[in-house]
Specification:
The protein is an alpha+beta fold. It is built from 4 helices and 2 strands; from the N terminus they run βααβαα. Strands 1-2 form a two-stranded parallel ribbon. The longest helix has 14 residues, at about 45-60.
């Protein structure tokens, strides 16, 4: 079994639809099929939350909406 470590930018690309996420989605599918395990460093979580929330606000979401969506995305990692 392969172990894949996603860095902050990989997760943000997926969450925020930044660029082509075909490769990321394929790796996640391998994980769902039991062929690989995906890891994210715990120290990345506050960075993900901060950057994602701010990017959503730049895209027009109000603060509460951006925070709620970011929290839901973070929960999807667990």
């Amino acid at each position: 079994m392969k172990h894949l470590v996603f860095d902050v930018n990989v997760v943000l690309d997926l969450w925020l639809n930044r660029g082509d996420t075909t490769v990321i989605e394929a790796l996640l599918e391998r994980s769902r099929a039991g062929e690989a395990r995906v890891w994210i460093a715990a120290s990345s979580l506050p960075i993900l939350h901060y950057v994602c929330r701010n990017e959503l606000k730049k895209r027009g979401a109000d603060g509460a909406e951006a925070a709620a969506l970011t929290s839901r995305l973070a929960q999807s990692l667990l």
